[in-house]
Amino acid sequence: MLGDAGAGRDGSEPYFFLSYAHTPKNHPKDKDPNVWVERFYRDLCAHVLQLTSLPAGVPAGFMDQQMQPGEGWQERLSEALASCRVFVPLYSPRYFLSEQCGREWFVFSTRAAHHHAHSNGSSGSGIVPALWVPVAAKQLPQPAERLQFNHAAFGDDYADEGFYGLIKLRYLRDQYERAVYLLAKRIVNVAEQTRISAGDPHQDYGAMPSAFGPPGPAREMEVSVLACSGSDLPEDRGPDCYGPRPRDWNPYHPKSSRPIADHAVDLVRNLDYRVRVAEFEAEAERLLAPGSPRAPGLLLLDRWALDAPHRRELVRRLCAENRPWISVMIPWNREDPECRVREDELRTATEESLAPRREEDGGYRSPSGGLPTLEAFSQELPGAVKAAGKHFAAHAQTFPPQGPSGPMPRVLPSGVGYGAGISASTARDTEQAAERAAKQAKEQAKDNADNADNGEGFS
Predict the structure, then answer these.
(1) What DSSP string describes 353-393?
(2) pLDDT at residue 88 greater than cutoff 80
(3) Which of 11, 20, 181, 410 could bridge 90 with an S-S bond, Cβ 3.0-4.6 Å?
(4) ∠ CA 390-325-321 to the nearest 5 degrees?
């Protein structure tokens, strides 16, 4: 049942954010090709207004073409993404190639991940996808693929044609009206069910990464945890942040209700990675095996775990060889009174264990003071993931294509034609000889023509 959802904290926030890829003009004199998206947006807003009790003047939605001249573009987008109830990505082949659309998706999905961490189990994404043009499943990045939205629920014609096809083909007008209405109902229902907490309206939108990775096979990332468990804590450490397994570690308790590994997995997935979670201590031999890496990694390090000598040794082994493809993040709750008591001692132990990471090519590691809040952890994670991916690409084993190999073709100095197995000097000599022969032939032809002209004059 549709309820009285309102508009937000003070009644001025957009109910939904429409994220779409701009279609460029083929010619400056052409009409704006995005006019049909604007019409769809107006129709959707009209239905949302009818299905809610939004007061007059409160925007039902937001799309970037509403902004006024001179208005701060990035600031306005940040405000809308921080306050909207529902995020509506308008799928098209162009959408998943757009850096701006990927950034909008990441900002909203990170806000949803924070809501999940603080809300004790509420896991709604707040994302309601819509089809502008149908997109093949193989073209969907990981964040979109995981939504598993059934577009056929809005009608077979909608699933086959998308809103663009429905709005352009007159005989599908009824199907267009029905699909827009059903999408509006879905937006209102999701807004009622999720109630995602507001985000930071002043975040640096321009510095946010895209949720869409490069085209090609899915990228992989391994998140590992080196932490205490509830059964092997230091004598002066309470059990509130721990569980039966190391991966249950929740350093930002009580503000966060989830293990830090689960929160990290959500954020890494929002960067278009497939994620595997491991407990570093249990799988150290595999993670520290010599040779080329199989995937980039993210190690979440509990300073309290370094109270045990065998765990300090594991960290030293990590840093003893150059493994920069494993980024090290150090959550450290500044509001935890037990952490404050032993901060200097545990920081020293951490610095000694991670000493090689001070070098620029040693791999990413958190600042020496650790990451004091869940928000600081979330802001730092994209940089740690990017660094791990960059170092992995530099150190991963490469595999040449299968099949017999032959001599590399060589381009001639003039850039025209190929010579297989011919040295550059030989090719250059050959080309110069050909040029001399052509020049001589041209001069000989000219002499012949002059002689012929002289003969005709005396006859």
Answers:
(1) HTGGGGSGGG--B--TT-B-SHHHHHHHHHHHHHHHHHHHH
(2) yes
(3) 20
(4) 135
Q: How many CB atoms lie within 10 A of CB 187?
A: 26
> How far is 221 from 140, CA to CA, in rounded Å?
18
d(CA 166, CA 172): 5
HEC sequence for 79-142:
HHHHHCCEEEEEECCCHHHCHHHHHHHHHHHHHHHHHHHHCCCCCCCCECCEECCCCCHHHCCH
Q: 418 has which bridge partners?
A: 411
Return the pLDDT at 368: 75
Report DSSP letters for 207-271, one per residue: GPPPS---SSSPEEEEEEEE---TTS--TT--STT--SSGGG--TTTTT--S-HHHHHHHHHHTT
Tally Cβ neighbours within 10 Å of residue 242: 24
Rounded CA separation 359/350 (Å): 15
CA 76 to chain centre: 21
Q: Structure tokens of 367?
A: 């600042």
* Residues 129 and 144 sit within 8 Å (Cβ to Cβ): yes
Pairing of strands 418-420, 409-411: antiparallel
CA distance 245 to 234: 15
Contact between 356 and 363 under an 8 Å Cβ cutoff? The reply is no
Cα 131 to Cα 401: distance, rounded to the nearest angstrom = 38
The pLDDT value given to residue 6: 34
pTM over 0.70: yes
